[in-house]
Amino acid sequence: MHPVIGNFISKTFYEKYGDPKINSGTPAEKLTHNISQYQDKVAISINIPNIKGEEKKQNGSTFRPIEAKETIRRAKEILDTDPSISVGIITFYSRQVTELFTEAEKTGMTEKNESGDYIITKPYQKTIKAEERFRIGSVDAFQGKEFDVVILSLVRSNKIQIKNSKDIRGKYGFLTSYNRLNVAMSRAKKLLIAVGDEEMFKIQQAEEHIFGLYAFYYELINSDYGLSI
Hints:
- By secondary structure, the protein is α/β, with parallel strands linked by helices.
- Helix content is 32%, strand content 20%.
- The chain has seven helices and ten strands.
- Strand 2 (56-58) and strand 3 form a beta hairpin.
């Protein structure tokens, strides 16, 4: 991965807990992208505040339609700009995966097969190097995978006040999983984009309970290599 992303992952998920520094091993000049709207950046925050639409729940899983729509719009914009680039969309909720596939179908990026399952349409299946070009899935679907650009759909947007341990889970859900967050944030080679309600991840409780995202917004996004939109 790009050294800036690699250093962030090392510092945030390893060095912070006493593990040795992990080096990315590839020079930055070999991991640049040509996405004009994000030129010279390796970390982007697409802020969708709570007022534009809160998270919802269905069958025990959380989703956020407004976020899915914007995530897919950004992914298509990137993929249609450069046929050599690959994009992976990662979320932490199965219901949001469905929402993302549904939005992608509207743009022609996905379709349903004879079994009724969503698949990636042919133009978005492979890069010009015959590598996987586009994937939507949960964190588990990205174990061992790498994409030039990774977009995180964070989903959580609520006004829950944290007063006890139960409230922590209610506010942040699966985002409190250190291992899952580490996997999700370390899949990007060139550009890491987070789509979500920024204020959820910049409050004091976020520093304690989801430090990886707190650090992403306060350190990586606020650096010369980051941008908040």
